[in-house]
Amino acid sequence: MRYLPILLVSFLWTATLFAQANPSVVYIEGNPSSATGGFNPYPGIGTVPSGGSTEIPTTTLYPEHSDEATFGLPSPTQRTSEIFFSNGQTPRRDGLFQKVNFNVLWAPKGSGDSAVGLTVLDLSAAFALPFPSKESPLMLTPLFQTWFFDSSSTNGTFYTTGLDIRWFAPIIKNKFTLDLGAAPLYSGDFKAKKESFRIPARLAGIWTCNPRTKFVLGVLYQDRSDSYNWMPMGGVIWTPNEDINFELTYPKLRISQRIKWWGSVAGDSVSDWLYGGFEFNGGSWGYRVESKEIDIRFDYRDYRLLFGYERRCLSGLTIAIELGWMFDRKISYNGYGSYHPDDAFFLQLKTAF
Q1: What confidence category does residue 262 fall into, taking pLDDT thresholds of 50, 70 and 90?
Q2: Among 80, 81, 105, 109, who pairs with 117 as Cys (CB 3.0-4.6 Å)?
Q3: Terminal alpha carbon distance of the chain
């Protein structure tokens, strides 16, 4: 843990130098109401790279390439910038349906006494309703997640399913947007009759300083039984040019750099990205202790450093592959103690259409 600040500072410094060395693509500064240029802080309105096509649709309410479908359990928040800071490369859709996601994470068990393997399957879909207009959308995201834990002391399968409800309210036009949400969920092992129903929620404000910079500040209520029940969220989202994005936010930080290969150039419908990030992740479920015939809460959390590659497609399948390291992991049984599993590497495949 003592080396983590050094790693993060070194990574940020290197990425900043790389961004300054690649200033060839700039934003078009224009009328915020323009469909092909300018800037609007609300979801669905972005900017087009200089020299790029003006045929990119900009009327949808939700970015198609978003990694996370929900802020609710077990993932505490989706990447903030994918809702509030879309750019010209972000695919968009008109109508009710916005996207469908399927993600798979695998962390092998290892050989230590405290080793814990983890496999996560995550399926979700996003729908958007004008409430009362496209500038004030209501997002509805049904989801289903399965978590498989594999260890000598913890062999359990847990499920999370429900509906994420999220509303974006423009308070000051082009300047300040309020983000409100709640997600009524079943989160348990399908055996526990208690401790399995919960409603995580969020409240955040997004302040737009200029077309390239946003500040986010808010709070997450995760409806957990451990010390992570309430969490702050926020930070700054900065896009100095079309080829790089700094998402310096908590609980998920990410820096993305566009790469030019395989014919991918500014304005194309397909773009390739490399990124690195830091995340807090975890979940909370109802757990049936058969030997004592009682229901308790099972809580899990970890921190992650990751590197990934993403191919974004304007009107088709977006795919990302991540390699990372889980550390400072913790498993808690409410009222029955806790322990720290060994660190582990993980692989993750993310898809969106």
Answers
A1: low
A2: 109
A3: 37
